[in-house]
Amino acid sequence: MKLSLVVPCFNEESNVLRFFNEVVSVFKGAVSDYEIVFVNDGSTDNTQNELSAIYNNAPERVQVLSLSRNFGKEAAVYAGLSYAQGDLVCIIDADLQQHPEVVIDMLRTMAADDSIDCVAAYQENRKESKVMSAVKSCFYKFINKIADVDFVNGASDFRLMKRKMVDAVLSMSEYHRFSKGIFSWVGFNTVYVPYTVKEREFGETKWSFGKLLKYAIDGIISFSTFPLKLATGVGLATSFASVIYLIVVIIQKLFFGIDVPGYATIVVLVLFLGGMQLFCLGLLGEYISKIYVQVKNRPIFVLKEHLGKNVKKD
Ligand code: UDP
Ligand code: MG
């Protein structure tokens, strides 16, 4: 069975050759039939030249897809999956934080049980601050409550999949791709193996807190319609509360002769309701903007150059 490694690369000039050499040495004697599909996601450094050199040294093992600009990791992975030829496909980062040795473990796990369609790695010990871990765990609790599919905290897109699952993932050609949700949505029998993320030795992570927050919001919007229904609930609750408040004011006035000081209350209510309305409009906007982009039906990625003998799988 042929194995394809799909490797998204964005400004990884100091990592791609190390990655390639590491794979060759780890796979020696363990895996023979494999290819590496590098996707250069619009790097602005020397990544393309490094990848071309790797391809020229091992054209039978390597494909290099160069996208016309930076489309983001999700799009780069989609491009790689579209061109991967393997019966088994593994998505893995170029920075060696996800070590190729784990792929061997994944292959072993998959070989042990024919009913397994996907072996996904999840991070056992996260190398991040306690605050970040707590925020992430709250996010997963929340999204699992409101989303249609299950999200596993710590699981990434570092996973080995059988061809039928890869084809299912490819058939989901949505523009806004949230792969954790997509992998869950397509189903299939997935088992999780623990792994420890290595430190990034060269280059920089492309994640900032702002990007993570946007990613989290995208995840919620892509796999849950709960926020859309929020307006109905909040609207009903505030209307109900205002009727109660009105009754209390009337009783105070009629039976106790107390005048309710109005100005401050009105200001607070107007601000609260105005804020809620804008918030709900904003939520609607999030969904509409996604519909807007989706109906344009733009391609997920644009290919500039393809080094490799293989043709795109359709
Ligand atoms: N990546 C990509 N396009 C992007 C951002 C990242 O192809 O726009 C690649 C990157 O080169 C790496 C992988 O995605 O191989 C994971 O990125 P990174 O290491 O920055 O993420 P982290 O490991 O910090 O989650
Ligand atoms: Mg990384």
Q: What's the short story on this structure?
A:
This protein has 314 residues and is of the alpha/beta class. The chain has helices spanning 16-27, 47-57, 73-83, 100-112, 130-146, 163-171, 179-185, 209-223, 226-256, 262-295; strands at residues 3-9, 34-40, 62-67, 88-91, 118-123, 155-162, 190-195, 303-307. Helix 2 (47-57) links the parallel strand 2 and strand 3.
Q: What ligand molecules are bound, each kind once?
A: uridine-5'-diphosphate, magnesium ion
Q: Which percent band covers the strand fraction?
A: 15-25%
Backbone structural class: alpha/beta
Kindly report the average pLDDT value.
88
Continuous helix count? 10
Query: Biggest sheet, open or closed, and with what strands and sense?
Result: 8 strands, mixed
Termini Cα gap: 19 Å
Question: pLDDT under 50 segments (min length 5)?
Answer: none
Global outline = elongated
DSSP, total strands: 8
Strand order of the largest sheet: 7-5-6-4-1-2-3-8
User: Portion of residues in helices?
Assistant: 40-55%
Order of helices and strands: EHEHEHEHEHEHHEHHHE
Radius of gyration from the CA trace?
25 Å
What does this 3D model show about the protein?
This protein has helices spanning 16-27, 47-57, 73-83, 100-112, 130-146, 163-171, 179-185, 209-223, 226-256, 262-295, and strands at residues 3-9, 34-40, 62-67, 88-91, 118-123, 155-162, 190-195, 303-307. With 314 residues, the chain is of the alpha/beta class. An 8-stranded mixed sheet has the order 7-5-6-4-1-2-3-8, sandwiched between helices. Helix 9 (226-256) runs antiparallel to helix 10 (262-295). It is elongated and about 90 Å long. It binds uridine-5'-diphosphate and magnesium ion (MG).
